[in-house]
Amino acid sequence: MLCGGKKSYFAAALCIITITSMVTLSYLRLQRLSHLPKIIQESSKCRRKNTNSTITALKDNRTFIISPYFDDRESKVTRVIGIVHHEDVQQLYCWFCCQPDGQIYVSEAKIDVHSDRFGFPYGAADIVCLEPEHCDPAFVSIHRSPHGNTDQLPRFEIKNRKAEPFSVDFTVCISAMFGNYNNVLQFIQSIEMYKILGVQKVVIYKNNCSHLMEKVLKFYVEEGTVEVIPWPINSHLQVSSKWHFSMDAKDIGYYGQIAALNDCIYRNMRRSKFVVLNDADEIILPLKHADWKTMMSSLQEQNPGAGVFLFENHIFPETVSTHVFNISSWNTVPGVNILQHVHREPDRKEVYNPKKMIVDPRMVVQTSVHSVLRAYGNSVSVPVDVALIYHCRVPLQGNLPRESLIRDTTLWRYNSSLIMNVNKVLYQTVLQPQK
């Protein structure tokens, strides 16, 4: 017998450990084998057309595919960013077509629903499939079965296949623009502040906005600063503009913000040194440095191995203003003039200030809104004397008198460049003379 020999407690314990290890290793080996790609078809070519939609519903209407990305940080896999129903999620398979021989490989997917759903039934998910060893597939289809007709399945391009030099240092991800968004002046001011601080690209997941805002987006797209990702999530699910299910019992929270943020990280993983996750009414203001590049160089030097940098949110209520920088031409533009709002709410005892992030995207696996869920490096909370988030919005402490607010004019350090740049954009978009 395997466990023969002296009848002692030590021998019995050793026997149990040995058998348990053997069973565990066998189980893990079988699990990996079950996920290995298998050839199911021989074909002369991959026939299907690519799907160009940002959000694609599978036939079960419980699974929505956003985009697949090549990820070789642990093993050679295709990681599909998607949205699933956390209870009704079905087994899924990746169908890879390998050219030029046309062999179709099917790989069983591991479905990892992100932990931060905030009570909503639908949430972001990673659909992860091992790729064929001797093939670098350019496209993948997702199906509920390992059998079927490949010609009837939507096909998605696998992004990030090729490693390339960084094209930009900083990319800001804004998700999602919805509710007929029309805060035009503050949006332009935020974009111009990002550019002053060192941003080269702003990615916006747009559900809808006003006609005037469309003109501004068109200008920035043509300039090369903004990339607009269509985000028609309300065509597929009942969406909430609230962050928690208890506030608004819909299918998914805040217009699927978490799924969009994860897609934005992977979309920019190979092209941007850093990715900034914040909203359009938020600006990470450095206090000890002139711009983000010098700030991040210093923070990385002080925190080797860190890949996530968290900045504290501070509210500058739009209800409390100063008469300085009351620029008459700006008064005709819808939205908030941030230069007039330089009083911030004080911290409240035992109330957590939410944070937003600048991340090294290659060190992030999954993100939420205010923290990462999985990453390879450490997370660092940046002290408020180094930088803070200027967040101009409706107050959270609306009953406080003006005297209780903290006057903080850090933003005014940039006023000359900001006013000049904002005027330039306004006179090419909003303030154009009518023909």
UniProtKB/TrEMBL annotation:
Entry GO CC: cytoplasm; membrane
Primary localisation category: membrane
Cell compartments where the protein resides: Membrane
InterPro entries documented for this protein: Glyco_transf_92
UniProt-recorded Gene Ontology molecular function terms: glycosyltransferase activity
Keyword Membrane part of the UniProt annotation: yes
Transmembrane domains' residue ranges: 9-28
Membrane protein topology class: Single-pass membrane protein
UniProt keywords, alphabetically: Glycosyltransferase, Membrane, Transferase, Transmembrane, Transmembrane helix
EC code(s) of this entry: 2.4.1.-
Record carries keyword Cytoplasm: no
Family classification: Belongs to the glycosyltransferase 92 family.
Protein name: Glycosyltransferase family 92 protein
Species annotation: Upupa epops
Name of encoding gene: Galt1_1
